[in-house]
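Dear U.,

Please find below the material for section 3 of the report. The protein was modelled together with zinc ion; I have listed the sequence and SMILES used, followed by the predicted complex structure.
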Amino acid sequence: MYNNCMTATNHALTGAAIALAVQQPLLAAPLAFFSHFLLDIIPHFGGTPIYEFGHKYFLYIMAGDALITINAITLICFLSPSLAAVIILCALCAVLPDIILFTYYTSGKPNTWFHKTHLKIQWYEHPPGAIVELSYAILMSTVIGILLWRTQWT
Ligand SMILES: [Zn+2]
């Protein structure tokens, strides 16, 4: 069974960008959650054996993704401490659908409409999607940089 999803890094960066742009947790958190599905529609990496449960590199990829995510979110919080709580909340909300998907990975069946929809929208999951993911990560980092710079002056 393959892992189905864009990297947690890209989801969390998007959540952080929403937090910095919106700043109001009650509005930003649902937007971050919704952003997950928009990102999953964008072509992304996948469909290769190294992205399969049980492959020797699979855990390294997951651990690397998690480490980059935690480091990036920590850095953003450090640069905008007054919004740290909203940033962490939104990053979690943006990754949450994939955490919920864990019940599918353990049971092996997409047994709810939520899982079925979540898996269906990911129409392109192939190795070249890594280029899209990398480009997206660079774009999001730039957006976050601009938003951080803006929060220093408002
Ligand atoms: Zn997903």
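For the text of the report, you could mention the following: The chain has seven helices and no strands.

Regards,
Y.
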